[in-house]
Structure formats: C-alpha cells, structure tokens
Amino acid sequence: MPTQPAELTVHSSQPYNAEPPRTALADLDLTPVALFYHRNHAPETPRIDPATWTLRVDGRVERPATFSLGALRERFDEHDQVVTLQCAGNRRAGLAEVAELPGETPWGPGAVGTARWAGVRLADVLRDVGVDPAATDVELVGADVSEEPGAPEPYAVSVPLDKALAPEVLLAWSMNDAPLAEAHGAPVRVVVPGWIGARSVKWLERITVRDAPSTGHFQAVAYRLLPAGASPAPGRGVALGPLAVNADVLAPDDGAEVPAGPTRVTGYALAGGDRTVVRVDVSTDGGATWTQADLDPQAGRWSWRFWQVELDLPVGTSRVHARAWDSAAGVQPADPAELWNPKGYVNTSWAHVTLHAFGAADG
Amino acid sequence: MPTQPAELTVHSSQPYNAEPPRTALADLDLTPVALFYHRNHAPETPRIDPATWTLRVDGRVERPATFSLGALRERFDEHDQVVTLQCAGNRRAGLAEVAELPGETPWGPGAVGTARWAGVRLADVLRDVGVDPAATDVELVGADVSEEPGAPEPYAVSVPLDKALAPEVLLAWSMNDAPLAEAHGAPVRVVVPGWIGARSVKWLERITVRDAPSTGHFQAVAYRLLPAGASPAPGRGVALGPLAVNADVLAPDDGAEVPAGPTRVTGYALAGGDRTVVRVDVSTDGGATWTQADLDPQAGRWSWRFWQVELDLPVGTSRVHARAWDSAAGVQPADPAELWNPKGYVNTSWAHVTLHAFGAADG
C-alpha cells in the first residue's frame, strides 16, 4: 500500500482507493501528485521494473510487436498534454443519499484531478504496427489483477479505434514533469482525455487491437449505466465512455463557517468528451435564479476549467448550487435522484455546498 | 409564400414559419417533404434559377472560385446522408409556459424533421480551393435577406473549420430523392448534421473561409444562449452550435383520448453533436420510476432514433414523460424552468404528453 499523505481520505486499502478533500484541489491548474486520487481494482499495486518492462501490441495488426521502454522513447516522439481525469464514481456520495449503494466506494468530490502527462501517442504506436481494416476497438490491459470479477482477472478495457487514434490519447511515463509514480501506473499508463478514468489503464502491459469492445469485467459488467432495479450482468446497461458535463464547488468547503458578506466561491467544470465548458452558473436560492461565474482560461484543451464568483452571503446558512453548460448547451440535471443508478456512476447533478456565514458579533 | 399542406401549423407567413403536428412525424424514418418544418428569416422565399445560380468560394483560400451547379456536379462526387435537422427553437412553447417569450415563434414539437439529403461534401469543395492555414471558420451565406437585424442583411452564419471539413456536412441539392424544393433552399442548401438547424443555410450563394466566426446577426446576436435577464447584443451569451440530447413523444398526441389498457407510446430521440442515443426512459409517475423504451435502429448515423414502449394506462388522466441519454451519459434535465432563456432556445427538458384513458363503459 502506498504511503498516504495526511490529506487523503482512504476509502479502502486493498485495493487502495483514496481521494483528497475538495479544498485541496482549488485554484491549482495541476493537481500535485500527492493529492491525486487513487482508484484501484487490484489488492496489490503492481511493482514493475522499467528496465525489463515490455509492451506487447497484437491482435488485428499487420506487424505484432513488443516494445521496451527504451524502444518506445527512441521510436516515437514525446508529447505532453494537460488532462483532467475523473472517476466514473466521482460524487457517488450524492447518489448514495438518494438510495443506498452497497459495496460501492462512497466517493466525495475528490475523485478528479488534473496533471501534465507526457509520453507517446497511442496513435503513433498503432500506426507503427499497422491496424487491420477490420479493427474497431483497442483493448488496453494492465498488470493489475483484480479479484472483483470472482475469478482473478487482469484489468482490461477498450476504447473505440477512432478515439485510440486521436492525438490526445497518450501512453504516459511522466506526470507533472516527474517520472510516473508506481501508485499511478508506472512505468507506463494510458491517458484517455474526456473519458471516464477507468479507460486510462495503469501499469499497461498489452494493447490488443480487436473487432469488438473488450469483454473484460470492467467494461462488460462494471462501469455500465444500469437502469434502476437492474443488477450487473455481462452486456447489461450501457458502457460508460465519454464523460457528461460536470462541475463541483472546491472552496469554501462544504459546511464551512465563513464571515458574512463578500465570499469568493470557486470550483471546476469539465465538459466531457470533446466538448468545452461555456458557462457556469451559481445559485443561492436553490436554482430559482443564477449568477454567472467568471471562467478562468484552461491549462489545456483537455483540462478542467476553473470558475469563481463573489457571493454576498447573509448571516446564517446558505446552500450554494453550481452547474455547468457545455458547448452543445448540455447542462447538468438538478437532482441526483434523476440520475441514481445501481452502480452509482456519473453523478452529474448540480453541485452544492452549505456555508454558515457569521456576522461581526459572532466573529 | 409556399402552398401549405393542411397539416402544418403556420406560425407566420412572412417569414414563413410552419411545423407539422407531432403525430405526423411518428414512425416515419424520413419525414415527407410536405411535412417538413419551415423556419425562415426573410419575408420572401428566394427564387433562384438553377441554370444561372453560382456558388462563390472565397476568403482565406488559395484559389477563390465560382462554381455553377453543373460544375459542382461534375467536379465532385455525390454523397447522401440521412440527417435530422432540429430548430434551436423547437419545443419553445414549453419554455414560454415558464415565462413569456415575446416576439419569438412559439414552436411546438414539430420544428424537427429527417430527410435523405444528397449533394457534395463541403469538405471536397474546400479542399479543391485550398484552405489557408490561418483559417478557423467557414461562413455560409444565403440568398435570403432578413429584416430582423434592423438593416436588411443576407442570412449568414459559420461553422468551425473542423466541422466544415467533416465528411457528413453536405451542400445538398436533393431531399428525399427529389430535387430540393424552393421552400427548403433550392438549388443548394447546407446540411450540418448534429448542429442547430440555423447553421444549415438555405439558398446558399457564398462560402467565405475566415479566421473568426461569422459576425452576421444570426450568429453574433440571435441563436445565442443568454442568461436570464439579458437582452440580445453582439457577442453576448454563447453561440449555439451542436445540439444537446433531446427527445419528444410523437404518438399518441398530447391530450389524446385513448382506450385504457396497453397503449403504444412512440417518439424520437436525438443525441446532438457527434454523440448517439443510448437509452430512452418513459415515466407515468412524474419521473419517480422509469421504464426503458425499445430503441429502433437508426436510418443513418446522423438521424433521430425512434423509440417505443407499451404502457398499461389506467382509466383517467396520465402524464407520460420521456427522456433520452446520450453516449456520454448526458441526460435531459427535468424541468423547462431550469433551461429558460430570453430567446427561448434549446428546450431539452423531459418531453411529456397528457393522455386521457377511457374504460369500456366510456368507449
């Protein structure tokens, strides 16, 4: 189990699942590695010697190949990209308030983070081996072996070929300008911008080009949007892929006591897929009226967008809601009850924190 | 003014704005031309002689050119595509129930339709003239002159270059296997799949490649998502482009009297942008519980998706809600009040009809 910074809330140690508090994410374009959420599926973190690590690329390709880390570095150009990763279960706690979600990690607001990732483009590797015309999907297999499927199974998911060939998808060996840490997938992990974090496979060992999506547990059974009342089964529901527009308040903290009067409220918004965030609204009257937040520039095309607004808080308790709009006028739904699903994924309902404002006499 | 089939509701005659009833759209993969909505901005429909019509392509291109209809046909391959067009104001009546929208056409459910369009790819034309590396947007100018901007102005909007170069964007001269009708933009109109209908310029006369979006009224002032309380002004709010996920009930009609018992309810869903519809839910208890509808295959990648469900209606009045999910787990918001905006665009709130079911004794 990795050393845990004091700041992280550890939901489980094997697999290691941990998230930072929301306030730790505020105002930092890049999330420090020590504050980046951990979402794992295997009880043990793989420990891989980079000197002997290899990446096998096979399946529907013309020239199956095996690359060492050195070969990847020599053969392909390095690219970097600032990318926000968000777990499909981020904000699950809000869904669990609607109806219980037994056995699911109760993620708060912190299963999201942004880093600068550097490595090679998956597209360059795929072009090098030559993709068969019948190929439709690219399976990504990690060294982590999960016990969740019943019989132990290496973590494997896939992305459609068109996304795999997009220039933003990286096989990354660097995170925030430092070598990728073991806990985050060293020596090489995948980074799939705009998609649920579960597709950004860590400890990558194998890439198999296929003519169908992965049949692995984490794509065929888990990470699927199920209708209420359904239980997970292979192929049931809809596989989650691109993210829908989401946002959260990062500061002040939920439940914070703050002086009444002008109060700066900040957060992030993330459009998902290939959309962008065009507007963020904040309300202190439950959504009856909205104030538009100021949007910061993005650190990168695939990164979250910070927003901020100054609210004039009266003495007493205020509930602050926030919601984001994407570039297709998609907007977050109001109520987690509209979104509740048996695995507790994709809570994109309006964000909210409760603030307690005190007057001068209380200060 | 075109002859109006009896079935259309005419909102205004100059400009001619008309829509079919919802039931006329049900169960038809392709909407008959006579039932296709009309959304115009000029008091007069342009009447263009195809024999003398020309298309000018200029701006940031290497070889500005002028094409006759014959030249377009000879020089470029014909492609066809089944595409659903939806007006940004479709379902506006639902927003007008929240708060009035003076001066805006009160579209019901019918400002949407699907046709097979044939013509040449805009991308092929742009590649032929050679796009300047500094280009970012492609302006499309029609022959229709609108008086809405104050001073008369030809209808002009733009799409970003990457969309303009996408293979699905057509310069179409055929609609449902017949020559494009004058009322729908003859001799040549643009079809921009996945985007608000307002970008699919009719009576196309000029294409200007630019390094900025169009500054024409219908992109800089109209067709923008404004915050509540704002009035239209150049650059204010957010230009509408790709559509967000939407759906409607098409049959039975709103207010219909039907026999109690098993009742087939059908409708369409449209994901918008480049997303797809993955699920449609129907509720008879205001969204407390949902039944998943059956999804029909799509007639084309860019067409709507029909859905159907059999509901067991009790005697009395039922309100049937429907909502669609897209491939990024984006879902329609519940309430039009969440979406109300001063120009009354993009009402993507849950669809609904009220049905009155009568028993055997009433039959």
Task: Itemize the secondary structure elements and their pairings.
The structure is a homodimer of 363-residue chains.
Chain A lengths: L8 E5 L2 E4 L2 H4 L28 E6 L5 E4 H7 L3 E8 L5 H5 L15 E10 H8 L7 E10 L6 E8 H4 L5 E6 L2 E2 L9 E3 L12 E7 L6 H4 L3 E2 L12 E2 L6 E6 L5 E3 L1 E10 L6 E7 L7 E2 L1 E2 L9 E9 L2 E11 L9 H4 L11 E8 L5
Parallel strand pairs in A: 3-12, 16-23
Antiparallel strand pairs in A: 1-2, 3-4, 5-6, 6-9, 7-8, 7-12, 9-10, 9-11, 13-14, 15-17, 17-21, 18-19, 18-22, 20-21, 22-23
Explain what this protein looks like in three dimensions.
The structure is a homodimer of 363-residue chains. By secondary structure, the first copy, chain A, is mainly β. The first copy, chain A, has two domains: 9-239, Oxidoreductase, molybdopterin-binding domain (Sulfite Oxidase, Chain A, domain 2); 246-358, Sandwich (Immunoglobulin-like), CATH 2.60.40.650. Helices cover 10% and strands 37% of the residues of chain A. Chain A contains seven helices and 23 strands. Chain A has helices at residues 22-25, 69-75, 92-96, 122-129, 161-164, 217-220, 336-339, and strands spanning 9-13, 16-19, 54-59, 65-68, 79-86, 112-121, 137-146, 153-160, 170-175, 178-179, 189-191, 204-210, 224-225, 238-239, 246-251, 257-259, 261-270, 277-283, 291-292, 294-295, 305-313, 316-326, 351-358. In chain A, the strands form six sheets. The first copy, chain A, has a five-stranded mixed β-sheet. In chain A, strands 5, 6, 9, 10 and 11 form a five-stranded antiparallel β-sheet that branches. In chain A, strands 16-23-22-18-19 form a five-stranded mixed β-sheet, with no helix packed on it. The N and C termini of chain A lie far apart (43 Å). The model of chain A has no long low-confidence stretch (mean pLDDT 96). At the A-B interface, strand 18 of A face strand 18 of B. Chains A, B: Residues 243-356 form the Moybdenum cofactor oxidoreductase dimerisation domain. Chains A, B: Keywords: Metal-binding, Molybdenum, Oxidoreductase. Chains A, B: One of its GO terms (biological process) is sulfur compound metabolic process. Chains A, B: One of its GO terms (molecular function) is sulfite oxidase activity. Chains A, B: It comes from Actinomycetospora cinnamomea.
